[in-house]
Design a protein that fits this description.
The chain is an alpha/beta fold. The chain is about 30% helix and about 20% strand. The chain has eleven helices and twelve strands. The strands form two sheets. Strands 3, 4, 5, 6, 7, 8, 9, 10, 11 and 12 form a ten-stranded mixed beta sheet that branches. A two-stranded antiparallel sheet has the order 1-2. Helix 2 crosses helix 3, helix 3 runs antiparallel to helix 11 and helix 5 runs antiparallel to helix 11. The longest helix is centred in the last third of the chain and has 20 residues. The chain starts with a helix and ends with a helix.
């Protein structure tokens, strides 16, 4: 299988495309991958994420494998259309939300529409049954969001947050104290390795005995989930460097075997450090993690707010607008990398 870095085409120039219509169904042919299809449709294999998020149930279950005869929906690129109007977003609002910046492409004050997830949340709030006015506050010290801001109900909801495995670890701080919405979007977590290292990941046994780096403060529940338990059983060595950049620098020094971060953070950090062609993401995702809205279990209207938000999110996902938002931001993300 071709490595994801080749398939993501971390290079400057897009490839020429053959004519192929979009907003239509495509039957997979022999030799197709989602990456070759993206190259044909969009002229750029980096834009495989447009296909992935439009066919998530199929592609997530198959770990990117497509079989001749599978049917994929081929979305059109959404372009750079302006974010929807948000007439219910007001300073003195009934529902107060908090988020933070520097989490592109999901939330960022200088990103179009202030990020993919911000646009999804805005659209879901507008689509709620009996919608109410709301405000969004930007607090860039993420460590304050859950405690004290949400725990003390200074805000009603916060976004976007990863959800631990609350069934297996109900005492986890987030699980014990917060309700989670349905996923706003799901994110692939990959293993990034040095070119030529020989590191393979076809099943979990391939990771046993390896040293992985994940930045300090990032979740680790996917590394210790039931049936894996890499940390609690000492099956891997986990290094928690101060920053993503430090993790990738450790990788290049050879002090760790792999870096485990989401596909977008990995791509951005590789680009920032000038490591294209030197660091490769492995094909198989380590995990798929949802980003959620959270609300304190102490909030007296918490379950009501969450029910209504989930209803708005479901209505949004049933419309064309959800796919347009996601596609637009994926295109912006990869285009920004190409122009750097």
């Amino acid at each position: 299988m071709r490595r994801l870095l080749t398939l993501l085409a971390f290079c400057a120039a897009p490839l020429a495309a053959q004519a192929q219509s979009c907003n239509t169904q495509y039957m997979v042919q022999g030799g197709d991958t989602i990456f070759s299809i993206a190259e044909t449709v969009y002229g750029d294999p980096e834009k495989w994420t447009l296909l992935y998020y439009s066919n998530e149930d199929l592609l997530k279950s198959k770990v990117f494998q497509v079989t001749p005869g599978d049917t994929l929906f081929i979305p059109c690129e959404a372009g750079t259309q302006a974010a929807d109007a948000t007439p219910l977003q007001q300073d003195n609002a009934e529902l107060k939300l908090v988020t933070g910046s520097n989490f592109a492409p999901f939330t960022h004050t200088e990103w179009p529409g202030q990020g993919m997830v911000t646009e999804v949340v805005n659209a879901a709030l507008e689509a709620m049954p009996d919608p109410v006015t709301y405000s969004v506050r930007w607090e860039n010290d993420w460590s304050r969001h859950l405690f004290p801001l949400l725990d003390e109900k200074q805000f009603d909801m916060g976004f976007p947050w990863y959800k631990p495995d609350c069934i297996s670890t109900p005492d986890n701080e987030r699980c014990a104290n917060f309700h989670f919405s349905d996923p706003l979007v799901e994110v692939l977590v990959l293993l990034f390795v040095r070119e030529g290292s020989g590191f393979r990941y076809e099943d979990d046994a391939d990771v046993i005995g390896k040293t992985s780096c994940r930045p300090k403060g990032y979740f680790t529940h996917d590394l210790d989930r039931p049936g894996r338990e890499w940390i609690s059983k000492g099956l891997i060595r986990l290094v928690q460097a101060d920053t993503p950049q430090a993790c990738f620098q450790d990788l290049m020094r050879g002090t760790v075997d792999a870096v485990t971060v989401n596909v977008f953070l990995g791509a951005t950090t590789i680009d920032e450090l000038g490591l294209r062609g030197q660091v490769l993401p492995l094909d198989k995702p380590l995990s798929v993690e949802g980003l959620h809205v959270v609300i304190s279990k102490k909030h007296w209207r918490g379950t009501t707010h969450l029910y209504r938000f989930n209803a708005g999110l479901a209505a949004l996902k049933e419309s064309d607008r959800y796919a347009q938002i996601v596609s637009k931001h994926l295109g912006i993300f990869w285009d920004k990398l190409q122009t750097n």
